[in-house]
């Protein structure tokens, strides 16, 4: 592991534990009302995007503790995982924008659709920064991990509340 990346080892280990626990909790919470979740396509898509975002964060943090990993290679890996992870919020956004909201929901669908892209965009910025050799790329990855946790919790909470409307 390079000296720069080695300094982030404890942070990455903590993120692995946190994201794994949160992904499990979201799955368990969704399974309590699985019939309602499955019937609401936009809720299912949003929960899927939230879980995938957590798995992407988990994977990026886990890869970050691999010994002798170069920061530039880490940036390339982050971009690859981000590209794969972007498929799910893209799908969720399409479903959200095509599904009529409940009559009592006054929030613009675009805002619901954009929230899922926040962690993906943050990781993309981090990966590009690392590829370009910017030292702040690791800080951007840390911010992306924290944004992922916040975004996934927000999306999951909202989706689980919406399913019970």
Please outline the helices and strands.
Blueprint: H1 3-6, H2 9-32, H3 34-39, H4 41-63, H5 71-85, H6 87-98, H7 109-115, H8 118-131, H9 137-163
Report on this model:
There is one protein chain. This protein has 165 residues and is mainly α. It contains 9 helices and no strands. Helix 2 (9-32) runs antiparallel to helix 4 (41-63), helix 5 (71-85) packs antiparallel against helix 8 (118-131) and helix 8 packs antiparallel against helix 9 (137-163). The longest helix is centred in the C-terminal third of the chain and has 27 residues, at 137-163. The mean pLDDT is 89. The chain crosses the membrane at residues 12-32, 44-66, 72-92, 113-132, 138-160.
Largest sheet: none
Helix percent reads over 70%
Contiguous runs where pLDDT drops below 50 for at least 5 residues: none
Rg: 17 Å
Mean pLDDT: 89
Strand content is under 5%
End-to-end gap = 49 Å
Structural class: mainly alpha
Number of contiguous helices: 9
Tell me, briefly, the overall form: elongated
Strand runs, count: 0
Order of helices and strands: HHHHHHHHH
Kindly give the count of domains: 1
Task: Using brief descriptors, characterize the structure shown.
mainly alpha; transmembrane helix; transmembrane; Modulator of FtsH protease; 165 residues; 0% strand; membrane
Q: In a nutshell, what does this entry contain?
A:
The chain is mainly alpha-helical. The chain is built from 9 helices and no strands.
